[in-house]
């Protein structure tokens, strides 16, 4: 589990894939320092919001395996060496919890349609499909490339977020250009509250403390 509070910006050192399209897998090498302090093999690191497992340490960072499902759902299949990435280590029991609950299982990708200054903030607009947009609400939470952000506006074809100066200084989003892809993970509590298939929901599926416990949120 993650919080969406980015600990450092790393960089892709290399990414290698093999296998036929649709079933390809690969290994990614990430430059990192702060995120790896005290880390061990098998620990989880969110790389641009994607939960990956440390498979090997290297002189500049770590390596992780990427399965075919992850490649098909994320922008990693288009990534190359040198790309900056947001990094967050999985939260430990007893640590302060900020941001919002981020699982590290991205729902899909969106595309930046606009990024502009808005006073001392940065306003970023994202285009995405209706399959993702149905879980987005104004003032709700969303993770973009793993960063916990608040939705400021929802449109027919996308939504917008606003980055305060401190957030903008710690994540990769302000440096991205129009048309670039970003990972989107919608708020798990919102998906739980709305239900993936409302027609199939039962009284037991209603949002309650017991439901939250059953799904590991409490």
UniProtKB/TrEMBL annotation:
EC number: 2.5.1.9
Name of one Pfam family that matches: Lum_binding
Protein species of origin: Teretinema zuelzerae
Enzyme class: transferase
Keyword Transferase belongs to the record: yes
Record pathway: Cofactor biosynthesis; riboflavin biosynthesis; riboflavin from 2-hydroxy-3-oxobutyl phosphate and 5-amino-6-(D-ribitylamino)uracil: step 2/2
Record field: catalytic activity: 2 6,7-dimethyl-8-(1-D-ribityl)lumazine + H(+) = 5-amino-6-(D-ribitylamino)uracil + riboflavin
Domain Lumazine-binding, first and last residues per copy: 1-100, 101-197
Coiled coil segments of this chain: none
One GO process term, biological-process aspect: riboflavin biosynthetic process
Designated name of the protein: Riboflavin synthase
């Amino acid at each position: 589990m993650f919080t969406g509070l980015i600990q450092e910006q790393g960089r892709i050192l290399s990414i290698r894939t093999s296998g036929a399209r649709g079933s390809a897998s690969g290994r990614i090498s990430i430059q990192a320092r702060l995120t790896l302090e005290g880390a061990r093999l098998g620990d989880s690191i969110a790389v641009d919001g994607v939960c990956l497992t440390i498979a090997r340490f290297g002189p500049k960072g770590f390596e992780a395996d990427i399965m075919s499902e992850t490649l098909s759902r994320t922008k990693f299949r288009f990534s190359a060496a040198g790309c900056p990435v947001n990094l967050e280590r999985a939260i430990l029991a007893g640590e302060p919890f900020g941001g919002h609950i981020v699982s590290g299982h991205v729902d899909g990708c969106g595309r930046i349609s606009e990024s502009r200054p808005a006073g001392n903030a940065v306003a970023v607009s994202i285009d995405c499909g209706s399959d993702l947009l149905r879980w987005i609400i104004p003032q709700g939470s969303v993770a973009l490339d793993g960063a916990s952000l608040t939705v400021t506006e929802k449109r027919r074809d996308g939504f917008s977020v606003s980055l305060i100066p401190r957030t903008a200084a710690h994540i990769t989003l302000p440096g991205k250009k129009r048309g670039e892809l970003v990972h989107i993970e919608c708020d798990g509590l919102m998906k739980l509250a709305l239900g993936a298939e409302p027609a199939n929901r039962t009284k037991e599926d209603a949002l309650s403390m017991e439901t939250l416990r059953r799904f590991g949120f409490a």
